[in-house]
Amino acid sequence: MAHSITRIRVSQAQVLRAYAPKPVISVPSRCHTTEAPRKASWTHPIHTTEQILAIKPSHRQTKNWQDGVALGTVRFLRWGMDLVTGYRANSGHKNTSLRSIMTEEKWITRFIFLESVAGVPGMVAGMLRHLKSIRAFRRDHGWIETLLEEAYNERMHLLTFLKLAQPGPMMRIMVLGAQWIFFGGFSFAYLVSPQICHRFVGYLEEEAVITYTKAINDLDNGYLPGWEKLQAPSMAVRYWQMPEGQRCMRSLLLYIRADEANHADVNHTLGNLNQNTDPNPFAARFKLKDPGGSASVVRN
Hints:
The chain contains nine helices and two strands. It has helices at residues 12-19, 49-53, 65-85, 104-136, 143-162, 169-192, 194-220, 234-240, 249-272, and strands spanning 285-286, 297-299. The relative contact order is 0.12. This is Alternative oxidase.
């Protein structure tokens, strides 16, 4: 008895779908804004209340012409940003004109613009050092990781503030222009003198500490009533691991100010080092000295 044989053609895509592993988390195809919480690429260190409250504005005095160039550039950019965001040094005082008073909306605008620019230097420096390490066929001694972590941290600041307010078309245009100009200018400057660039970022972060300190003072003095009971976004609570009872807007500003102070210290330190041979002291770990040998670097 003859049997007919029917040939079934199965495409490669069908085979792959049949044997592909099932996803652990199913995300609806139409869901574009809701995302399952996951661990951050760089876990933020836990700061104690005493540590974040101890942060005060500080300034590293210039010691050579390179420092002068860096500081002068920062002050010029600070003047431009003050003009764009409507910032005034005495904006919270009762005798200030109505036009220059810094409201919650103006502070958020300033923060968003500041953080959109602050996220550029770490990424540019990390990218250029990454490319240099590849073409030189040698290690970078831990600089790349610290610089990329700084850029990631600044981006988290920006994303946190975007949970509180969304920029309008004009702000988006200004950020686009500032990012395009700053990215190109900083890339060229870092190729010419990375030491000046790290000093520049150190002074820039000093200005950021001053800005957040001023906002905290305005909040403490009652000039920002809309923030007195405002809670930090959930993503900020997870990222900074904010404890219960310390998840308000004031605590958020304190945590961000501590980050900016740390960036200032890191970049001023990197600006003091030999850019080609010195290891990054913030990334290297050392073994304890044993009786028969000396300390050695575990990771750099």
